[in-house]
Amino acid sequence: MVDKYTQNAVLFKALADKNRLQIVDMLSCGDKCACNLLENFDITQPTLSHHMKILCDCGLVSARKDGKMTMYSLNNQTVEDIKGCLCTKGGNSEECICDEDCDCKELHV
Question: Distance (Å, rounded) from C-alpha 63 to C-alpha 26?
C-alpha cells in the first residue's frame, strides 16, 4: 500500500507543469477528447499523450475509448482528496503528524 505522502507527492508532481494544469482546468468543465484538448496547445499529439499518461497514472484523470476517440475526464474523488489534503494543512486536524508537545501545535488553531 502506498502511503498518503507518496501518493500526494505523485499528484503534486503531475500538477507541477503548466500544460497539465491547463488540461486539468479544461477538464473541470467536462469530458474532452484528445483532439479538443490539443486545439488549445502548441504541442504535438505525442506530447499531449505524454501529459495525459502522467495525469492518468496518478489517478487524477480517467480515459475511456469512444469509438476512435479517447475521452478524458477528471477523477472527482482524486480532486476531493487533493482538496482535503490542502485543507488540513495549517489547521487543527486529526491528521496532524506533529508531536503533542511540539510548539507548532500553536499554529494549528
Answer: 15
Complete edge-to-edge strand list for the sheet that includes strand 32-33: 32-33, 69-74, 61-66
State pLDDT tens for residues 67-88.
Answer: 999 999 999 999 888 888 787 6
Collapsing DSSP states into helix, strand and coil, what is residue 108? coil
Q: What is the CATH number of the domain that holds 22?
A: 1.10.10.10
Look up the pTM and report it: 0.79
Q: How many domains does the chain have?
A: 1
Q: What distance in Å separates the CA atoms of residue 83 and residue 42, rounded to the nearest whole number? A: 30
State the Cα–Cα distance between residues 35 and 13, nearest whole angstrom: 25
- Domain extent for 29: 4-106
CA distance 71 to 99: 46
Mean per-residue pLDDT, 3-9: 87
